[in-house]
Amino acid sequence: MTNSILPHSALILVDIQPDFMPGGPLACEQADAIVAPVQTILAQDRFAHYVATQDWHPGGHISFASSHSGSKPFDSIALYGHPQVLWPDHCLQGTNGAALHEAIDWNRMNVIVRKGTDPVVDSYSAFCENYNPAGERPLTGLAGWLRDRQVRDVYIGGLARDVCVLWTAQDARAAGFNTFVIWDATAPVTVQTDTNTRKTLLEQGIRIVYSDNLAGTP
């Protein structure tokens, strides 16, 4: 049976890139397990619009532990008045590790949002960058792009469930979209965060669904 298109909907696939896969410098737990559900979702073609994000850092990015003397990956510092996790060098512009994952068919994408391009500002969300030196979170323009196309419902998959997917979902909800996280199409940096991630999503009115029941409820 052919599934009908979900009206006024968009699928956002966050940072599905080799550097976040097993063997990558910032591997998410069980990240390779999301490839099949994502491919199935794309094959069903149920969404009106499709968006991908791509982490795309210049060398020496401020979020890299290597950019801070005496620091190591996963240390936390204060940056512009807010906590900043320091990451291993990852998704360097133009490298194979920053490419969109080759096992996924990206042809349906209407737009690709590259983020983390500012060397002094980190960027987790598809909608807003992290805090900059002025204490602001600059918009990526995605919310306006979606509104121009009458999108009301946003479905999110990708990496990492506890970081960039979470921030994207929170910002989508704050921007007024009905927001759904496709749980089995995401994977976390560490599964130890899953309980808190799920709690945070539900408390903020973000629904958790699965790839075989995209219109479901928690």
Automatic annotation (TrEMBL):
It comes from the Bacteria. GO terms for biological process: pyridine nucleotide biosynthetic process. Pathway: Cofactor biosynthesis; nicotinate biosynthesis; nicotinate from nicotinamide: step 1/1. Signal peptide: none annotated. It holds the Pfam family Isochorismatase. Keywords: Hydrolase, Metal-binding, Pyridine nucleotide biosynthesis. Residues 9-195 form the Isochorismatase-like domain. Its EC number is 3.5.1.19. One of its GO terms (molecular function) is nicotinamidase activity. Belongs to the isochorismatase family. This is nicotinamidase. It comes from Advenella kashmirensis.
